[in-house]
Amino acid sequence: MAWTNEQQQAITLRNSSLIVSAAAGSGKTSVLVERLIQILSDPTEKVFADRMIVVTFTNDAAAEMKQRLQTAFEKRIAEEPENRWLRQQQLLLPAAKISTINAFCFDLIREHLGDGEITSSFRVMDETEQDLLFRAAVDEVLNRWYTERAAEMQLLWNAFCNHTDQALEELLLELKTFLASIPFPEQWKQQVLQRFSVPDAENPDYLEFLKLMQEKAAVLTDEVERLYALSEDLYEEKNNVAEWMSVDFDTMHALLHALQQQPADAEQILKIIQNHLDARTGKRYPSKRKTVSSTALFEQIRDQRKQYDADMKALFTELQETLPYCREDFQAHRELLPILFALSEDIEQALWTKKVQRNALSFDDGERMTLQLLSEMQDGVLTQSPLAKALSEEYQIIMIDEYQDANNKQDMIFKLLSHGCRKDADGTLQYGDNAFLVGDVKQSIYQFRLANPKNFLQCVRFSERESQQTDQPRMRCIKLNKNFRSSDAVLQFVNLIFSHIMQGTDTVSYDPSEWLYPGATGYQSLPEHQQGVEVAFLPETETADFQVTWITHTIQQMLQSGYPVLEKNGTVRPCQPGDFCILLRKGKPCQKYAKALEALQIPVKKVEEQGYLKAREITILLNMLRILDNPLLEIPLVAVLASPMFQFSMDEISMLRLLDRKASLYYVLSVAAGDAEQLATPELLEAVQQLPEPFREKCRSFWQIFQQLRTDSTTLPLEELIREIYDTTDFLSVMQLYQDGEKKRANLNLLIQYARQYEAQGQAAFTGGVTGFLRYIDALLEHDRDLEQANPSNGADCAVFLKTMHRSKGLEFPFVFLAELETEFSKQDSSKKMHVSDTGRMGLYLYDAKNYQKYQTLSYLVLLKEKKQQLLQEEMRLLYVAMTRAKQKLFLPLQLGRKEKMIARQLQNKDFSKEFVCRAAVSSANCMAFWIWYVLYCRQDAEFLKCMHEWEARRPLPEETDFSTLSISYTAVSEEQLDAEQAETVADALPEPDAALQAEIETALQFHYADTAAKQLSLLSVSSLTHDKTQTEPEQEISWARPRFLQQEALTATERGTATHTFLQYVSFSEAEKDPKAALQTLVQNGHLTEAEADSIRLSDIRHFFQSELYQRVRRSPLILREKKFLVQLNLLLPKMQGEEWDTLKQQHNPESMIKGIIDLAFWEQNGFVLVDYKTDTTRDMTALANRYRMQLRLYQLALEGITGERVRQCCLFSTYTGAVVLL
Q: Which residues, in sequence order, are bridge partners of residue 106?
């Protein structure tokens, strides 16, 4: 293989440490392997294979490294079969320390762990168990502190908590996570406390805050000054706009000057702000006058003044809300931090005790204990321990891959292990002369895992100083910038974007030394339009997602046309689905792209999903385990019965449930299966005998399987039990028949692995067996934790890839679409309970118990701004990773809409020749699309302006010659085009219709029912059924619930009647008999009646009922039914109906219709029911009342007899108006 000069240097340089900055696609892995092979193969400078350390960040990467080395040795030995040194090295290779950092640390601990609380047979906890154990320790310690240290807990509660102490618990978890990433937590805590021990005016956070405000003020001052100069040309006489602008100009200059003073006078700063606000009170910005020199200039100044005016107000507000409270903020930190640190130490001790009891360590413990073994503190100075010195002499090579992703603790461990490590002049520990560090700081995208890319930059700067100071530097730096992956057009576009936005950052400045240079050959043979970058401008609507339409339609067109793909060997072939990748910032939108591709019959590999424990197949299996553990759990039992495992229908389950409503479903099922007949009641046995024999056989089949599994659950290991469930029920095969069957099968197989891991590691925390495993799962669900889903290949190489940008690192595709670039950056940092920095800084987000509000302290604000800047830098690096995945062509769909117009207003008329203006513009981004727009706007080539005719043209910045030939393809897509494409896509996706089937469907649709019953209502109320349409009674008033604003008006007669009915429905008869008024107030208090409804009820009507002979009969009854609801079929009542009116009823209504109603009151008397219906009609004609409701009560009578199986011996109406009882 032909190596570049830089690659050759990285392979052959010796006698010093080497840091290789390997850009995307530069072949770093090949270089790393070749360097190792050449070192291990050299018989003169012998380096033994078992005396090297090679660490990576994933098990897959470590395994790949071992395989590559093994393959390379086999090839060398085949070429030199007599070389004894190569054969010896091959034998030593399995003993080489090639692993992840965590695996290396645990091996080191086991080899050198002395007598102590943890033995060398310890097990490694996963992150889930560690988290659950930590929360248990938090609960334990907090409960103790509430009793033993109540005063301190009160301070913490007032500062962080509202209704519960969950906020405090989350803060402690954040603090623990951070402390686990730094080498020496105790020193860090002392640094934090020291910052708040100085006078407030000298506090570093206070000085940093003023510096940040000064930078903001400088940008605003420049903008005000620019607009002020423009405004002077608006009018020749009485220029009131310039006068207005001069006030802003004077204020900003005075404020900037005050902020620049040493020390700054807070009172003077606040006074300047207040004077300006007072001067503006009651005044409005001047309107345009006829004598204006230029309307366009006036509108430009007016619009841009609005923007800077909003920025000024934000700056003023921030200063006003922060400076007056600095003293209180610092005092709160002085009081709270020592308590918080003491509490966290107690929790850490309780957590350690639990780990000792389980003889288990977390990944954090592995790094911490390794660091303790390798380091010593002598008079406050860090030095190598005797073990570290011995190991640094033993290990001849230390190689770290993806070094930019190492955290501070990991970096310190390998510095201590390096040969000849020593401190720099400023006290910083540096690598010795045998380290080989490989990575790319521009691809550091794991800040959420506390990776610190500054360590990489610190090594680069150290190597630069060493090279300047001596001819024999201890550390050299080599940059690999030649890209062997992407086309020249893609690389030029990447360079264009990042040379504009990745400037002046704390991590890296994207200058020509960081640019990507073409190394791949063959792209010259492809036409220009088949490679490079395509920017598509898409309309933005709320009803359609045109990004999904455009991307999926473009992929479909390229597949149908056989779009050419350049292979590494220079040949060209038609594209396949696996050549495409859609990258998104977040995983949630992936589903809609997957559905759109599937609708086009394009295979797709979805992003790895969350929600393993809530996947249907896993839920069913877990429910099976739950009922094996406790069969009396009804909901899991129903879920298992209704699942594909046993396929009981809901009707069948209801049939079982109705056999005995009071007994457990498990007991009823046992009787139905014939296993508990001796315990069953005669009624239940009789009901079971009437069940269809096929259904009883189904119950017996389930029962036999279930009882065998219950027996096995007491003897088999959990892993074997799950396998037994699969084999007995054929559950794996059944679930494979469903959509995503391979995924479901893989998930179910993965559950076996999780069960095995639990029994090997987790039983100590939750006890063993099924019960303990279920407790473990429930704990995960309670804390919103999950397990990783399976990721079956399922022909994935022939499918379009859908991935998040984070998961695309290390991959490459001929065609890459960067979708949803308008996704806003995360704002979680603004809601965190605290912010910390590894430089010994901490700021708290506190709760003001007096004013019931949360507030950000000054220290928190300073760190928040720093975190936001770090977030922006990481988002830039993530965009860099995403763009550099493309080999042949990169597609960038951008939305034309509100965001684009906002960006245009923000960028227009800015003087980008000033560095701080560019920096401010880049820092104001809230999504990746902003940066793309920003660069395209700054460049403004002709094609861009053709597509963006609404944007105001401006003179672009001078273009670097390296980008002068850059060609970007722009496409402006209209809404009509996308609608047409979508319609065409749908048409293409549909199969040809089956003519015979189509004719059959059309015949069925043209069918008309001859039976008039088809047009009749299927559900009738008794009142509508008994209404005589031939009578000319006045139409009854419908009673609707009144809105609150009308409830003060007098109630209608219908509403008063409804209120009386409600009273009789809910009132306690015994209470109302004694005191109807008190009973009425009870219903008001319970919310059954409003005050207005209660006032409308006549107590005389109520007394009529409770003083009647009818009520005395009710009192003596052993069974009373009140407000009895029913739903029966009309044809069940028809056989008992007689007379002409019943004949009319049969003719007018469908016998299959259902009748619903509510029986006011029924009570048992002697040998039958007495049915009572309350009537609130204001009439004294009882004969008319009886005739009006006779049919209604007859239907009530028949329904009650049908649902109870008992005779209704008497029906009567009770008139609340007269107190009369009318017998029917």
A: none
